[in-house]
Amino acid sequence: MDLKSILGRLREERDALEVAIASLERLDNQQRRGPGRPPGSATKVSTNGTNHVNGSPDPAASKQ
Predict the structure, then answer these.
(1) How far is the C-alpha of 7 from the C-alpha of 57, rounded, in Å?
(2) Which of 30, 32, 44, 57 has the maximal Cβ count within 10 Å?
(3) SS3 letters for 32-54?
(4) Are 50 and 56 within 8 A, CB to CB?
(5) C-alpha–C-alpha distance, residues 36 and 14, integer Å
């Protein structure tokens, strides 16, 4: 086997590994979320007759 063909194959493998690493890094970065409130935490529906997260009664319900 000649040295040039070995080097060519190693370069091809290196390129393939770089593509795979970049793809995995993108996936990892997509899974991370920044600081702040979790999604949907301000839209929870209570079952105790209130419509607000802080527990105050719904103003629209009192007008009925």
Answers:
(1) 73
(2) 57
(3) CCCCCCCCCHHHCCCCCCECCCC
(4) yes
(5) 39
